[in-house]
Design a protein that fits this description.
The protein has 11 helices and 19 strands. The protein is α/β, with parallel strands linked by helices. Bound molecules: zinc ion (ZN) (2 copies).
């Protein structure tokens, strides 16, 4: 079968690899669409994602949808032909984190397209993958594959909202208008937020943020003072969600949230230690909360996509065939013209 394989920094090849076989409780999925995530972009352009270095050829991709092609003899949940969103993680189900219901924090998880372990966990930018039946989320047959491939990134946005707590009537700041930040902004409105502020260092995604509902959109690279002025005193936000991975943005969140407010860290900050005004956590009695991947929100994301509760199409800016994966990665890296870029397989 054909697969997109990263051999190292800027070395991406479309090649033939062995097709997977199916065990008793497994499902073979014919992948149809996959979204390029920030981690995939790092693997391709840098040969690494933070501390995880590519040491053997890696198939990237974890935000995927497809059709059930074949099922093992003990599979009951799906049948061949079913259209599905694929959960990219297979938690062990036995560790302490799994047992307390925090499967996104499983210490033995298999997660598509990650070099965090060796041998690497191969991803899903290829024609077929095998998964456990528990990773398959069937949807109505009329749902677009690229829309369905938003299940994972939307689930991460929804997990951030879960972590933030009730947003009903809350004033919310989201820093970083990449696909995840944008989806978080949109989901925060659905969750009842009364005011939404968005920041980025690039104008184009901020214009998009205004189109999808931001009340205030500020380019902090050009006009940081405007943000502080707008969010002073009674204008302060109750919740600040950091989705850019920039230490400056985390600083904005800590400084601009009201006393007693909540700061949610979702972006991946640079490797190593990061200098932040940490005393604000103490002096303002802030809650600083992390977000890592998602949990039960995956079902919710699939439900929202299937019911059209949240229209993700404004976030989808390009679809490329597998043979053009290189162009897809180039487009995905260009934040002036792209939000979520997909590969069709
Ligand atoms: Zn992702
Ligand atoms: Zn586990």
């Amino acid at each position: 079968m054909r697969a997109c394989v990263i051999h190292g920094k800027e070395d991406l090849r479309i090649e033939d690899v062995a097709a997977p076989s199916v065990a008793e409780r497994q499902v073979r999925v014919r992948i149809r669409a996959g979204g390029i995530c920030g981690s995939d972009i790092h693997y391709f352009f840098e040969g690494r994602n933070g501390d995880f270095v590519i040491k053997e050829p890696l198939i990237p991709g974890h935000e995927v949808s497809g059709e059930v092609a074949e099922v093992g003899s003990a599979v009951r949940r799906v049948r061949p032909g079913d259209r599905i969103a694929v959960h990219p993680g297979r938690p062990c189900g036995r560790c302490a984190q799994c047992r307390r219901g925090a499967e996104n924090l499983c210490t033995n998880v298999f997660f598509f397209g990650s070099a965090s372990k060796f041998p690497h966990m191969q991803g899903a930018f290829c024609e077929s993958v095998t998964v456990d039946e528990s990773q398959c989320h069937p949807v109505p047959a009329n749902l677009d594959f690229p829309v369905l491939a938003f299940a994972e990134p939307l689930s991460v946005a929804l997990h951030a909202i879960t972590r933030a707590g009730s947003l009903v009537g809350r004033r919310v700041l989201v820093t970083g208008m990449g696909p995840i930040g944008m989806l978080t902004l949109m989901a925060a409105r659905k969750a009842g937020a009364s005011f939404l502020a968005a920041t980025d260092a690039v104008d184009e995604p901020l214009r998009k943020a205004e189109q999808v509902g931001a009340d205030l959109a500020v380019n902090v690279a050009q006009d940081r003072s405007r943000l502080a002025a707008a969010l002073q005193g009674p204008g302060a936000v109750d919740v600040a969600i950091e989705a850019s991975g920039s230490p400056m943005a985390l600083r904005d969140c800590l400084e601009l949230v009201r006393p007693g407010g909540i700061v949610v860290q979702m972006g991946t900050l640079p490797r190593g230690d990061v200098a932040i005004p940490a005393n604000l956590v103490m002096a303002k009695e802030l809650d600083l909360r992390g977000v890592f991947r998602s949990g039960m929100e995956f079902d919710m994301a699939v439900d929202w996509l299937a019911n059209g509760r949240l229209d993700v199409r404004p976030v989808l800016t390009g679809v490329y065939p597998l043979a053009d994966a290189r162009s897809a990665f180039d487009a995905a890296k260009d934040r002036r013209r792209s939000l979520k870029v997909m590969i069709e397989i």
